[in-house]
């Protein structure tokens, strides 16, 4: 019985001094820096990755319709025009990408069964930079994405005249 009263009096004494309020500020700071801001950056990375994946898928679908030379052209539709449209007027505006993504296109296989592979590389920055003494990708340093997609190329037999000709 004596210990219950002693604990009760300590709790009442603690509440009257306001020490709980003094602990609230540091606890809120730890909560924000350790949980809220990293989760917000993770949400931003999910958004950026989804937008980058959509760009790679669009490039792969268009590259499957073009002939090999037109698909690999550095100033062509796949490597230049689709990424520019994506960054300036498409969903790429919402991705945190500072510079133009790099794209490479390759073909494998023989004519009726050709596969086209499009590899797109991005560097995405975090939404908020969390102040840490070390560089952590996604928290206070950019994250590199390397997205690769394969699709069967449209056969010249089935399409008649090549689209990129």
Structure description:
The relative contact order is 0.16. This protein has one domain. The longest helix is centred in the first third of the chain and has 45 residues, at about 20-65. Helix 2 (about 20-65) packs antiparallel against helix 4. It has about 160 residues and is α+β, with helices and mostly antiparallel strands. The chain starts with a helix and ends in a 6-residue tail after the last helix. Strands 1-2-3 form a three-stranded antiparallel beta sheet, with helices on one face. The protein is rod-shaped, with a radius of gyration of 27 Å. It is built from five helices and three strands; from the N terminus they run H-H-H-H-E-E-E-H. The mean pLDDT is about 85.
């Amino acid at each position: 019985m004596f210990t219950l009263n002693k604990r009760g009096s300590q709790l009442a004494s603690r509440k009257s001094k306001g020490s709980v309020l003094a602990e609230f500020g540091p606890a809120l700071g730890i909560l924000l820096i350790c949980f809220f801001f990293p989760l917000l950056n993770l949400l931003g990375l999910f958004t950026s990755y989804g937008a980058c994946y959509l760009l790679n898928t669009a490039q792969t679908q268009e590259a499957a319709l073009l002939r090999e030379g037109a698909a690999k052209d550095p100033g062509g539709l796949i490597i230049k025009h689709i990424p520019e449209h994506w960054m300036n007027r498409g969903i790429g505006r919402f991705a945190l990408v500072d510079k133009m993504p790099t794209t490479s296109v390759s073909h494998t296989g023989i004519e009726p069964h050709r596969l086209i592979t499009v590899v797109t590389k991005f560097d995405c920055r975090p939404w908020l930079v969390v102040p840490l003494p070390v560089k952590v990708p996604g928290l206070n340093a950019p994250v590199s994405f390397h997205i690769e997609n394969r699709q069967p190329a449209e056969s010249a037999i089935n399409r008649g005249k090549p689209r990129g000709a």
